[in-house]
Amino acid sequence: MADEALVVIDLQNDFCPGGALAVAGGDEIVPLVNDLIRRTDHVVLTQDWHPAGHSSFASSHPGSQPFTTIDMPYGQQTLWPDHCIQGSLGSDFHSGLAWTKAELVIRKGFRSEIDSYSAFFENDRTTPTGLAGYLRERGIDRLILAGLATDFCVGFSALDAISQGFKTTVRLDACRGIDLNGSLEAMLHRMRDAGVTLEDHLSD
Ligand code: VGL
Ligand code: ZN
């Protein structure tokens, strides 16, 4: 439908098995996402895209370990292994992803001093990526989200999509989560409470 877009979140090598920040089963969703791409008129991709030495990397904070949190000027930030470094193989889309139909690629996390989980706003929750304006100008008001990771980039994108006035569905069967200290369950609750439609098409 013309007023609907599929937003595929961060389906990149580093988030798939063998990658620097591998999400369990991350590669399993590729066929489902490709099917969604085939069936949707408008496709947007996001690409996690960090400069080397990014402030979300544990390696940038001597003495810190990945998967712990630190306080940043904009709030709490989880520290990650180095991942999705601009132009690296790990930052490439999964080789099986049928990405050529995409009309737009939103790159995020490209500022050294701030991370960006959401496709709409960076982690200070105020710096826009431009995606909301792009979609509005295109007359798109309904979004389907799929990709990695359910409890971080997909989840925050869905919450922001709702706050920006888009009718938003997350295809949980075409997502996989990191699940750090209960983050998956917590994000599912937050999305449900915010009015995100959560769909699981396991039998499709
Ligand atoms: C993501 C952690 C760090 C994601 C990106 O795509 O969910 N998670 N960078
Ligand atoms: Zn990242």
UniProtKB/TrEMBL annotation:
InterPro entries: Isochorismatase-like_dom, Isochorismatase-like_sf, Isochorismatase_Nicotinamidase. One of its GO terms (molecular function) is nicotinamidase activity. It comes from the Bacteria. Keywords: Hydrolase, Metal-binding, Pyridine nucleotide biosynthesis. Its EC number is 3.5.1.19. Pathway: Cofactor biosynthesis; nicotinate biosynthesis; nicotinate from nicotinamide: step 1/1. SUPFAM superfamilies: Isochorismatase-like hydrolases (SSF52499). It holds the Pfam family Isochorismatase. Residues 5-199 form the Isochorismatase-like domain. Belongs to the isochorismatase family. NCBIfam families: PRK11609.1. This is nicotinamidase. It comes from Mesorhizobium qingshengii.
